[in-house]
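The instructor's notes for this session suggest beginning with a concrete chain rather than abstract definitions. Hand out the sequence below and ask the class to guess, before any prediction is shown, which regions might be ordered.
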Amino acid sequence: MYLLLSVPAVAAALIAAGFLYQLLGAYYDRVRYTRGGRWINIGDGRRLYLLEKGTGGPTVIFEAGIAATNLNWYHIQDMVSHFAATASYDRGGLGWSSPCRTARTPSNIAAELHELLNGAGIKPPYVLVGHSFGGLVMRRFALMYPDEVSSVVLVDPMRCEEWPPLDPAKQEIIDRGKKLSNYAVPIARLGLARLAVTSLLCRSGRMAERLAGAAGDGGMHVLGRIKGEVGKMPREVWPVVAAHWSRPGFYTGMRCHVEAVPDTVREMHDAEPIRGIPVLLLTPGKASPLSEDCLRRIGDNVRQLIARDSAHWIHLDEPQLVIDSIRASVMADQSEPIAAAG
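After discussion, reveal the predicted structure:
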């Protein structure tokens, strides 16, 4: 009888310990890992986390992929800051920024980015650099604020034709992503996500493998993807990635981004081309190049460059190619006033 009574008490104690472990860990993560940046108020109590490096114009603005943060640009931003002012940030719902309050579509995010830049006092012109979903955000930004943009670099931008509603076969991927995000929120609140990602990225990884194995084939698949993608990032950012992925808010924000994919596709599939602004599009060698018709739908001055040794994460597979592409865009903008004067 005593044993039966003690089981609920032990379970309650473990749950309470998990909550406390997560709360304390999140507090210390924020203290340790946010000192290099600052938060910018964009209205309605929302704050976006901004990281700036370098000086000189035009300012290079980085936009990450669908569930990624400013960390995705860590090495690239550091290198580019040697010859230009740079700014990366965490979108609403991700990283250190406030939860999102609007659908995660390119138009909403571009408007928030514009508020961020104004609030931070970062003046145009801008060189916009976007990866994957972030490429759609930068396309929309250039359409909404063309007078503030000098050039755009798209790093394997998301292809609308590959996602619902244009490709209904991919709806299963979206549904799976939403379901996994929903499952992960309570797991993160109990501190189990912190145990798993800290084990994977900061320790031996054995705890992560046990937890992933308990989740079945899906858990092992996710573990493999994490190892493959994060493994390409500099080791010094791994603990910060672990801190992000330990937060329940990360999974809520990821779900918001994933469930907005169909609306994103509807918005951008029929978007007008970018006019009068140079666009450099980097396509991985492991994917099919975009057709001339697709390039014309993006803009009237688009050049495609094939990253022959890359998959989707070109900035991690061939970082120097991306750095050189950004450098060329910056130098072209800096030379324009001189040419005009002559």
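Then share the key points. The chain has 14 helices and eight strands. Residues 337-342 have pLDDT under 50 and may be disordered.
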